[in-house]
Structure to design on (295 residues):
């Protein structure tokens, strides 16, 4: 008599029941794993994008591309650029970076310039006829060719007629064009150079001043000049002649500077470096300070 043999259900031969699908070992688990991503919360994608954006912003900061960082952080820019193709979005980011750097450079140049009237700009010039200002001359100075060719500007006129203001406006325009500027009162700068002789920094200070694209000397010839100041003035101007520009404001007309220098040889040398090829502006009219006073 044969003994009955019992088989495990998975070892049975023959067709599987028609109403039960046949699965190989692990196939059901694989199908469930494939379905898992569809069951994840929708916030996972946005979280990953935020992490990616933070990483990208950190890399842009490391590259010192702060303009692009500001553009990416600007919600209005993101909304406006969302419908643009990739090339136009990239151009928008690059332009924001260029504008950012231009703004920072202008801020740095104006801070270093130490303009006495920081708010002065050529757009606010008072063009009343009694002042003797030429629109054609000012228009020719706006482009900055005089700076590129190392030309000087001589501003003369009575006290209060706007010499310092106009000099500062020209200095701000120079900074907008990317030129380095420094404002200084002539008596104070000459005193500074005199002190530099004593501490041994005279040569270094002269080299710093020689590198400036534009030096504004205010209140030139306002007080008698000493012998050592004449020599320092000649050294200062000699380093700049033909390559760097200087704006000089003075109450005395340029024709009286030779007598003020009071030494014919040095006066000829100094004035030759100042006056040759310079743009001359002689302001006229009443004091602008009086005109601005409330009635």
């Amino acid at each position: 008599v044969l003994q009955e043999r019992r088989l495990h259900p998975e070892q049975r031969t023959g067709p599987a029941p028609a109403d039960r699908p046949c699965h190989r070992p692990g196939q059901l688990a694989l199908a469930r794993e494939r379905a898992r991503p569809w069951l994840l919360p929708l916030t996972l994608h946005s979280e990953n994008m935020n992490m990616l954006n933070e990483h990208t912003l950190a890399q842009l900061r490391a590259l010192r591309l702060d303009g692009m960082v500001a553009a990416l952080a600007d919600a209005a820019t993101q909304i406006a650029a969302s419908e643009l193709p990739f090339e136009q979005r990239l151009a928008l980011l690059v332009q924001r970076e260029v504008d950012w750097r231009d703004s920072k450079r202008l801020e740095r140049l104006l801070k270093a310039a130490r303009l006495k009237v920081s708010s002065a700009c050529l757009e606010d010039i008072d063009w009343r006829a009694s002042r003797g200002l030429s629109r054609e001359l000012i228009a020719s100075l706006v482009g900055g060719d005089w700076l590129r060719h190392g030309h000087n500007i001589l501003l003369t006129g009575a006290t209060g007629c706007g010499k310092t203001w106009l000099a500062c406006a020209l200095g701000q325009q120079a900074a907008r064009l990317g030129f380095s500027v420094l404002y200084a009162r002539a008596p104070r700068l000459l005193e500074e150079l005199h002190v530099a002789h004593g501490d041994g920094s005279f040569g270094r200070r002269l080299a710093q001043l020689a590198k400036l694209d534009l030096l504004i000397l205010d209140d030139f010839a306002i007080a008698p000049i000493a012998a050592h100041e004449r020599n320092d003035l000649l050294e200062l101007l000699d380093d700049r002649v033909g390559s760097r520009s200087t704006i000089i404001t003075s109450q005395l007309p340029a024709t009286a500077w030779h007598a003020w220098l009071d030494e014919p040889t040095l006066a000829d040398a100094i004035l030759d470096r100042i006056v040759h090829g310079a743009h001359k502006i002689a302001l006229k009219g009443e004091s602008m300070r009086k005109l601005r006073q409330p009635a």
Notes: The chain is about 55% helix and 10% strand. The longest helix spans residues 86-113.
